[in-house]
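Protein: NADP-reducing hydrogenase subunit HndA
Species: Koleobacter methoxysyntrophicus
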Amino acid sequence: MFYTKTILNKYPKEQRYLLAVLQDIQKKYNYLPRGALIMVQEYFDVPLSKLYSMATFYKALSLKPKGKYIIRVCDGTACHIRGSALIIDEIHRLLNILPGDTTEDGNFSLETVNCLGSCALAPVMVINDKYYGNVTPALVRRILKEYGGVNCEHIQEKG
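Structure follows.
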């Protein structure tokens, strides 16, 4: 928990910085480890339940470890109408994960989001900070192959 101590030392002991600290911890570990939450509890002198409440309220925070690559599929109106469900189905087929899951090897996590603000490119998918627009199931296979998580050669192409 060395990084947690380093993060905590950047902030004054004022509760208004709680969310920023949790976001920094999330960014470092890709989730909020229990040990880190206990250190935050002691530093800010707040109940652990308050930290868990924040961790479950904000979608950007997670109590479960996330993958190296976080795939976010937009399911806003424009993306939904233009086939975001097909994108999610293809990711499920290729990686065997549903929204909220992480692959067993810890490489990929899948999330759906309400809007990524790129409606003109619908459907949109983001891996970490890289946006992909006009995504099709075939494009999903090519994109995931770029990240090395899918051996697409054994998967039969859809017609």
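Remarks: Helices lie at 2-9, 18-29, 34-44, 48-57, 77-81, 84-95, 137-146.
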